[in-house]
Amino acid sequence: MIAETVCSAVSAAGLGIAAVSAYRKRFLAAARIAAYSLVPIGLVLTGVVGWAADTAFSLKAWVGFGVLGAAWLIFLGTRAVERRRGGTRAERKAAKAARREAVAPAASAPSLGTGASSATARPAGKPQAAAPAEDFSDIEAILKKHGI
Fold first, then answer.
1. Alpha-carbon distance 80 to 72, whole Å?
2. CA 14, CA 8: separation in Å to the nearest integer?
3. What average pLDDT score do residues 114-129 get?
4. How confident is the model at residue 122 (pLDDT cuts 50, 70, 90)?
5. Any idea of the CA torsion for 57, 58, 61, 67, to the nearest 10 degrees?
6. Dihedral through CA 77, CA 82, CA 85, CA 90, nearest 10?
7. How far apart (Å, rounded) are the C-alpha atoms in residues 33 and 131?
8. pLDDT-derived band of residue 67, with 50, 70 and 90 as boundaries?
9. What is residue 131's three-state secondary structure?
10. Distance CA 116, CA 105 (A)
11. What is the DSSP letter of 86?
């Protein structure tokens, strides 16, 4: 009963504000305010406000909301753990199998076959020569400009 009275008062006040806005020739704003102010009275007439008031004061409903909240938290927790681990169980099994197959069993022994051409082959004892010096003149210019 109190909720219906409050909703009716809110709707009446909103319609009054809409009338003042229309008087000031702000018709678009007045129409929006009127639409928003009709929502509470519409909710009263459909019975949603009565249902919500009955639900708000019901212990059974609050226990139900608590159970739903717990289920939601468990769901979020499992999703967070799943993302940290890297996917579902099937995805982890596939990744583990792919890692095992990626390295051949005899790969730890060096291969001395003639599969590589002499142009691309390097002697094992010599490190690769350093790449040719790149042109850093533009970077040097910027550093000099800033006094570095």
1. 12
2. 10
3. 53
4. low
5. 90
6. 150
7. 71
8. very high
9. coil
10. 21
11. T
pLDDT at 50: 87
Rg of the chain over all Cα atoms, to the nearest angstrom: 37
Q: Are 18 and 37 in contact (CB under 8 A)?
A: yes
At residue 58, what is the residue type? S
- What average pLDDT is seen over the chain? 81
Instruction: Show the tokens assigned to 66.
Output: 């608590």
Residue 49, token pair as written in the block: 């406000």
The yes-or-no verdict on residue 78 having pLDDT over 60 is yes
Most confident range, picked from 14-18, 104-108, 120-124, 132-136: 14-18
Work out the angle between the directed axes of helices 2-23 and 27-46 (0-180°, nearest 10).
170
List the structure tokens of 70.
């717990």
Q: Which residues of 46-69 are buried (b: 16+ CB within 10 A; e: fewer)?
A: eeebeeeeeeeeeeeeeeeeeeee
113's tokens: 């076959």
